Amino acid sequence: MILSMTGYGRAENQWKEKKIVIELRSLNSKTMDLSVRIAPAIRYKELEIRNIVSQKLERGKVDLSISYQDINTGSQSHFTPINKEAFGYYYRELQALQGELGIAPKDMAEAILRLPDVMRSTEEESNASEEEWAVVEKTLGEAIEAFRQFRIQEGESLEKMFREKLDQIEGLLAEVAPYEKSRVEKIKQHLMQNLEKLSEEQKRQIDGNRLEQEMIYYLEKLDINEEKVRLTNHLKYFRDTLDGDGSGVGKKLGFIAQEMGREINTLGSKSNQSEMQIIVVKMKDVLEQIKEQVLNVL
What we know:
- This protein folds into three domains: 7-81 and 118-153; 84-113, no CATH class; 157-294, no CATH class.
- The protein has helices at 46-57, 84-101, 108-113, 123-126, 130-196, 200-205, 208-221, 225-242, 250-270, 274-294; strands spanning 7-15, 18-27, 32-38, 60-70, 76-77.
- The N and C termini lie close together (11 Å).
- By secondary structure, it is α+β, with helices and mostly antiparallel strands.
């Protein structure tokens, strides 16, 4: 079983007059890339939250949202609220300065929002009680579990696709066999035809034993049995990896796909016959589809 790096999870619980809503989204990434948006009341727990999510999700480009919703009004809180008292104070002071200095007002609100304490809540607003945090932690665990189930479902779809593509490559590899013997015979005929074109004097100068050795060496270089065996082994290793525990196998599958590509490329370079080259192109196309989806495997 494999897990997808793409995922979504959502959970919610109630604390007094607040509804706590947690959402997790993830796309593929080589490492853990976590961005968070959390309500002010639990911002002091951000490091702990990051550690929990990073350990459970392992890697991916993850977006975490923890918001509070007032049950009575339905309003949500993702960010630190504006300190109205501080905003009003700065506004009055700036207005007075404008009157004194004769400065035309311009983007006053934007300037005020950058001033100290305007976007900072009080200590009482920032820190949730331990009981409240316990509810948040429980909700986070439920969201992570929902997220994990999503990854499992997506992983099952990916695994099905991988097995179909592996079967296609295996089938294409079997199609190569009928052309192997005829290919060698055609190469021999082509070499002999070239020899026949030589003059009698040139033929007498040829060392028969050396010629035979060179022909054997040349034909051995075009032999593709080793590539076929290695590619078959890579296909088996890919399947065996899919059958594993599914934890962090994405990179391993990527390495195996690379090795499969090497053998297919070598087959292509040795296939000096159009029918075989067409088969190799088809194998490359299927392998590219595998490589694209391997990037989504955890």
